[in-house]
Design brief:
This protein has helices spanning 2-33, 39-64, 73-86, 96-117, 123-141, 169-190, 193-203, 205-210, 215-241, 246-249, 252-265, 272-294, 297-317, 322-345; strands spanning 152-153, 243-244. The radius of gyration is 22 Å and the shape is globular. The chain is an all-alpha fold. It has two domains: 1-36; 37-345, ABC transporter involved in vitamin B12 uptake, BtuC, CATH 1.10.3470. Helix 3 crosses helix 9 (215-241), helix 7 crosses helix 9 and helix 12 (272-294) packs antiparallel against helix 13 (297-317). A two-stranded antiparallel ribbon has the order 1-2. The chain contains 14 helices and two strands; from the N terminus they run αααααβααααβααααα. Helix content is 77%, strand content 1%.
């Protein structure tokens, strides 16, 4: 029985080292390989990082706090359109970031204060947030200053303060830094008192209220933080593509990619949404490439069917998401090993 005890004492430290060693190695490989990728593959990988970041942003309110928001495209569009409007002036485009953050924080606080004040949750909160995003899209479509349905073009301005890079490689490193910052931030949030309060509300709201947790305040803070982080993604996206339009930047499709990434990777986990967002974009790009290569409508429709079936199969195989299922199985193995140690000592 002594070997079991010694392994149990040594393995946690080894597991912690490996847990951080593997991501560090993957990041090092990405940084080293990125300059040698062709422009298409580099752009696909860059977009995967961006939507992994956006899925993690949505995960704060949708995963940790358990509030199903379908209106996050409104905050993404707020960030991208802030850049487009500022581009009409001579000011550096990075000034759009603090402006967009302030507007997003104010708008999210008002929306959350109204919705949670009247106890909107579940499907009601999802539909309410979706309607608000649709209203924002209609406003933009009917606004001459915002380019109506044609959108706005953002001229290329060289310089770091304008994020005016001629290739996507600097944006790849920028999005990678955003992802790393999100991982650290979510890890700290997960272990904070605020994080525990969000998880308590997600699991059992009435019990959390009985423990003197202010449910409305916690949900409001989660929604505001999530919205502001999503706006940062919108600003970064607009600086890269240099074009914004309501049909994309304010569409339901943007929100659904965030939700799919978080659900596929594992809601309420640190790495799950990042993995899920990357998988969603890369699978979509692969199927789009196949459909474009063949060049027929039937093949493109078949690619979309395969796209949907892929996610159905993944969710059937990993009900908690890819990362969520891995963490759950690891916890089960630890519980079994702990029970075996207890039995061996009796």
């Amino acid at each position: 029985m002594l070997p079991i005890t010694s392994v149990a004492q040594v393995s946690p430290m080894q597991v912690r080292k490996l847990r951080w060693l593997v991501p560090i190695m993957l990041i090092a490989i990405l940084v080293a390989v990125a300059p040698s990728l062709n422009p298409y593959h580099l752009r696909a990988l860059t977009m995967g990082l961006l939507f992994g970041y956006l899925a993690a942003s949505w995960n704060i309110v949708g995963g940790y706090a358990g509030q199903m928001s379908l209106g996050h495209a409104m905050f993404f569009g707020l960030g991208s359109y802030s850049v487009a409007v500022l581009a009409k002036t001579d000011a550096p485009l990075l000034l759009a970031l603090p402006v967009a953050l302030a507007l997003a924080g104010l708008l999210a606080w008002v929306v959350a204060a109204i919705c949670f004040r009247y106890s909107l949750r579940g499907i009601y909160f999802a539909v309410g947030s979706l309607l608000l995003a649709e209203i924002a899209r209609i406003v933009v479509v009917n606004s001459d200053a915002l380019g109506r349905s044609q959108g706005l073009e953002i001229p290329l301005r060289p310089g770091v303060l304008n994020l005016g890079f001629e290739s996507n490689l600097p944006f790849f490193y920028l999005y990678l830094a955003m992802v790393l910052a999100m991982v650290v931030g979510c890890r700290l949030l997960e272990r904070s008192r605020f994080g525990y309060s969000m998880i308590a509300l997600r699991e059992q709201e009435e019990a959390a209220k009985a423990l003197a947790i202010d449910a409305n305040q916690v949900k409001r803070r989660a929604f505001v933080i999530s919205a502001m982080l999503t706006t940062v993604g919108g600003v970064a996206y607009a600086c890269m593509v240099r074009f914004v339009e309501p049909a994309y930047d304010l569409s339901l499709a943007i929100t659904l990619v965030m939700v799919m990434g978080a659900v596929l990777g594992g809601r309420g986990t640190v790495l799950g949404p990042l993995v899920g967002g990357l998988v969603v974009v890369l699978v979509q790009e692969i199927l789009t490439t196949i459909g474009s290569a063949v060049g027929t409508t039937s093949v493109s429709a078949l690619a979309q069917l395969i796209y949907g079936l892929f996610f159905v199969v993944i969710l059937l195989a990993f009900p908690r998401g890819i990362v969520g299922e891995i963490l759950s199985r690891r916890a089960n193995r630890r519980a079994v090993a702990g029970a075996a140690i207890v039995e061996s000592t009796q």
